[in-house]
Structures are given as structure tokens and as C-alpha cells.
Design goal:
Blueprint: E1 3-11, E2 17-25, E3 30-34, H1 41-48, E4 56-61, E5 64-65, H2 71-74, E6 78-81, H3 92-97, H4 113-125, H5 141-154, E7 159-163, H6 171-188, E8 191-195, H7 199-205, E9 208-213, E10 216-221, H8 223-226, H9 229-236, E11 240-244, E12 251-255, H10 258-264
Parallel strand pairs: 3-8, 3-9, 6-7, 7-8
Antiparallel strand pairs: 1-2, 1-4, 4-5, 9-10, 11-12
Helix pairs in contact: 4-5
Length: 268
């Protein structure tokens, strides 16, 4: 397994907590974490990435307990893309090059030609190359998100954790980024776990979904197994219709408006 959370509980002092999380992600999987706001998606990612220590249970990445590893050693295996990119005056290119630091040799203080080549590769994949000389503070939120993705890829990780990677992107860039993630997963064997709000995108791109609700895993399985309208209505507390994408056959969710609910007599 590339990622294992065993009996994980805990969270924030006096605040939200996860309870009894058991999750195993095999090498080469592309897994989507879905659920309503406040269900525990980001907390799960923070615990899986060593940003938040669980009160009970254990977290293993590539067979190693993450709390028995030094952060620099873990960064050789695991990269994280958070919701909010850093606001720093450094150039996009220099920011992406930060992803190479875990690979620095002893007494190495500057990037090598090989490091720059990897950074260029990451920027080309994420379409950051055109604005690589601009400061991170001078580009749009969507462009900063792509730069953060490029920095993560520059680490050359085995496991990529993404917390709502498309949140600042328009629909065209969302599709390009999700296509890239799936391509990296298929062609390079990169294991990916990503938090997503868009159920339809999660259904289309992820091989397995984990549905969170009130700090617990409510259901886990293929998109077809998870996207049952009865389960989704219970978790999201709204009326939904689940159909099929006529092109791919994947489940697709349609919200039911207030007007239509009134017409049909449906109850929330």
C-alpha cells in the first residue's frame, strides 16, 4: 500500500475531529475524497501529510510510519498541493525549484542543471512556463495554483495529495489539470489522492471515491457504488438526481432546484 490510515482519530483542540478512519490506498490508485463542507476532507489530508498529528492510530506512506521519518525524507515520497498557494515575491520558476530541495545532496545549496531540467518539465506540464519569470504575487489565483502543482511535481513524488486542486481554475483549466493528473497516474504510476467538491468530476476522473460525513467515512468504493442518490441526499441534506453520463457511462449528479421541489412535492 502507498498510503494507510489505521484507526485514525483526532483533529483540532476544542474543534473538529475525525473518528475511526481506516483507509488504504494501493500504489497506482487515483482516489477522490468527497463530501460536504466540514465533513473532514481537509483534516484527513492534513493527517495523511504529517501536517496534523492524530490523537490515536497510525499513518504509513510507502510502508513507513510518517511520524518516524524526518520531513525531508518524507518529501522524497510525498508531495502536497494545498487549497491556498503561497503568496511570495519570488518568481514562479524559483518557487517551482523549491520542490527540488528534498533531492539536494550534502552541502548542496544551489540547484543543479538537472534540478532546473526537472523544474522546466514540471512547468511545461502545468502550463506555467509562459509566466515563469513573474512573481507569485503578480499572477492570478489560478496561475498560483498551477505553480503549486508544478512545485509538487518537481519533487518527483510517489504519492501526490491534492486538496481541491481545481478550486481557483476556470472550467478549461480544470479539465486540463485533471487530464494531467490522470495522465501522470496512468503513465508514471503516480499514486494520487485528491479532495474534490465537484462530484461529477470526481466520478469521471477517480477510480475510487471516499465519501466523508461528520468526520467519518460514510461510504467507499467505485463511483457507481458511492454515488447512490439515497446516500448522497442523506449526506448533503438536499434533493439530488443521479443519472449517467451518456458519453462515459459514469454516474452524474443533478441538483433539484427549489422550484422543482415545490412542484414535485419533494422534501429536503
Amino acid at each position: 500500500m502507498m498510503l494507510e490510515l489505521q484507526h485514525v482519530s483526532g483533529g483540532y483542540p476544542g474543534g473538529f475531529s475525525l473518528a475511526g478512519i481506516d483507509l488504504a490506498v494501493a500504489k497506482g490508485e487515483l482516489v477522490g475524497i468527497v463530501g460536504p463542507n466540514g465533513s473532514g476532507k481537509t483534516t484527513l489530508v492534513r493527517m495523511a501529510s504529517r501536517a496534523l498529528r492524530p490523537k490515536t492510530g497510525s499513518v504509513h506512506v510507502d510502508g513507513q510510519d510518517i511520524w518516524r521519518q524526518k520531513p525531508a525524507a518524507l518529501a522524497l515520497t510525498l508531495a502536497v498541493v494545498n487549497q491556498t498557494p503561497d503568496l511570495t515575491p519570488m518568481s514562479v520558476e524559483d518557487y517551482v525549484l523549491l520542490g527540488r530541495i528534498p533531492h539536494y545532496g550534502r552541502y548542496q545549496f544551489l540547484e543543479t542543471t538537472a534540478d532546473r531540467a526537472v523544474a522546466r518539465w514540471a512547468m511545461q506540464l502545468t502550463e506555467c512556463q509562459a509566466y515563469r519569470k513573474q512573481a507569485m504575487t503578480e499572477i492570478s489565483g489560478g496561475e498560483r495554483q498551477l505553480a503549486l502543482m508544478a512545485r509538487a511535481l518537481a519533487q518527483e513524488p510517489k504519492l501526490l495529495l491534492l486538496d481541491e486542486p481545481t478550486s481557483f481554475l476556470d472550467i478549461a483549466h480544470q479539465v486540463r489539470l485533471l487530464d494531467l493528473i490522470r495522465r501522470l497516474n496512468r503513465e508514471l504510476g503516480l499514486t494520487v489522492v485528491m479532495v474534490m467538491h465537484d462530484l461529477n468530476a470526481a466520478s469521471e476522473y477517480c477510480g475510487r471515491l471516499v465519501l466523508m460525513h461528520q468526520g467519518r467515512i460514510r461510504r467507499m468504493g467505485t463511483p457507481e457504488e458511492v454515488m447512490d442518490y439515497r446516500v448522497l441526499e442523506e449526506v448533503y441534506e438536499t434533493v439530488l438526481v443521479v443519472g449517467r453520463n451518456e458519453f462515459t457511462g459514469k454516474p452524474i449528479v443533478f441538483p433539484v432546484s427549489e422550484d422543482l421541489r415545490k412542484q414535485s412535492g419533494a422534501q429536503v
